[in-house]
Q: What sequence folds into this?
């Protein structure tokens, strides 16, 4: 598991956006760090946040010939 060092003012969704490119994954970050950073909303800076591996899938959509 990788570690992210929080910057003063970071929030769960801002970290998720910086690391994964989407704030949608903030719930996964909170879950992975629930014991270590319970109740944290805004980070002071310097905290170590564990980054869980998130697997995403890209769908390959095939269009019908008349849709091109």
A:
């Amino acid at each position: 598991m990788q570690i992210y060092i929080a910057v003063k003012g970071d929030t769960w969704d801002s970290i998720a956006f910086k690391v994964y490119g989407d704030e949608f994954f903030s719930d996964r970050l909170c879950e992975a760090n629930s014991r270590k950073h319970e109740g944290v909303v805004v980070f002071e800076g310097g905290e170590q946040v564990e980054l869980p591996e998130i697997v995403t899938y890209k769908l390959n959509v095939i269009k019908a010939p008349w849709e091109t």
In short: The chain has a mean pLDDT of 93. Helices lie at 12-20, 26-32. The longest strand covers residues 2-5. Strands lie at 2-5, 48-51.
